[in-house]
Amino acid sequence: QxxxxxxxxxxxxxxxxxxxxxxxxxxxxGSRNYNRSWIRDGSLTATALMRLGLFDETRKYIxxxxxxxxxxxxxxxxxxxxxxxxSGYGEIEYDAQGEYVFTVVNxxxxxxxxxxxxQHFDQLVRVMRHTAELCDQTRQPDHMxxxxxxxxxxxxxxxxxxxxxxxxxxxxxxxDYWALKGWLDLRDVALRLDRHDIAKWxxxxxxELVQAVRKTIDATVAFKKIDFLPSSSDYGDPDPTSISIxxxxxxxxxxxxxxxxxxxxxQYYADVVKRTKPGANFGYTPYEIRNLMSFxxxxxxxxxxxxxxxxxxxRNPVGWRHFAEVVLSNERLGSYIGDxxxxxxxxxxxxxxxxxxxxxxxxxxxxxxxxxLLVAAPKKWLMGDGEKLRDVPTHFGRLDFDAHLIDNTLQVxxxxxxxxxxxxxxxxxxxxxxxxxxxxxxxxxxxxDNGITLAITARRVTVRWSQGE
Length: 469
Fold this sequence. Notes:
Layout: H1 5-21, E1 36-38, H2 39-51, H3 55-66, E2 78-80, H4 95-111, H5 114-137, H6 173-192, H7 196-224, H8 240-247, H9 258-275, E3 283-284, H10 290-297, H11 301-313, E4 327-328, H12 343-357, E5 358-362, E6 369-373, E7 387-394, E8 397-406, E9 409-418, E10 423-427, E11 436-439, E12 442-444, E13 451-455, E14 460-464
């Protein structure tokens, strides 16, 4: 629950819509256009279901999909709901590799079910071994031979059409961001199972792909004479919604050039502002919900609020509290809208809203984790009844959380069954150093303009400012 009832009710509605659209064990993005399941859509929709405590549905989906992973480690990107293999447009989608690993590992992290992890571990290794073999194809001297600046392609995953922005296969960074996430997740669970040989291999492959992504982006920027992050090395095209997947959940923000990153989202935000003007004519896909987390992690709370308010206006009919795949400013225009409700979009809403409230942050190739609270929660969410989370699964255990802002005082209570030796980072609702902070009744001096770092055992925090915002 947050202090904006429409946000709360819209999040809850997505739960029902996801389950309605589900066909047997198959998670699908809609019931009108589809009778098949994508691991791309399913990975993030399964994450939303797990965040809402629906683990049985998620486990059945994972086990159903796992039956279709090929012996060589290839993950089929699409499976018909009757279990038959899909062939045709969309069969070449290499994001499926990392997405499958992410889904399995996330189930383990949110349940702590080590038997489940051990059951799937060898298959995770095969999946990522196949990913490495795919990257080997673009390292060969004949790959893209004759193309100018062919260094744009070396070491990446081969051309695919994964994120739906391309009618012909291209070297899409969307695939590579998911592969990087796959390597990080495999390394993490290998260490947990004392498979240090696999962890060392995964770390090596991760570092090699990171370097390839950096070098090919630099080469693409130079060749295409652009000043933003490209979505593919073939076209050098802008697509912030696909770049956002690299930021969250794939965790590649620190590997993105700050100058290109800033220009990418400055240009996108300017377009959002244009759409808010009276009489604006536009069409967009609410997949842009992903960009909320990019603004949040770039510490741009005003942009978070502006974009969220705009996207909420795109729900139509408003009382149904759902999202179409495409939203048009002219509601009477006869044009493609996809499914309504479209629950890949809907799961993006669930994951993003919860991500704005709390986020597990792990150091890339490092030790230690941090549970971040109030990551990018608008001030109005803290008003009235405030924010409440109950029994929410996290990588740290189950979380209970209450936060209220009354006049110039923020009152926070942290509960549940959190465990471990990690830490909590509580962000302030606005960037201003408070006058006084107490934790479990004891005054604190170690805090800054943006928040405070707490032991995971902290339970009650009171923050006071001399004035409001």
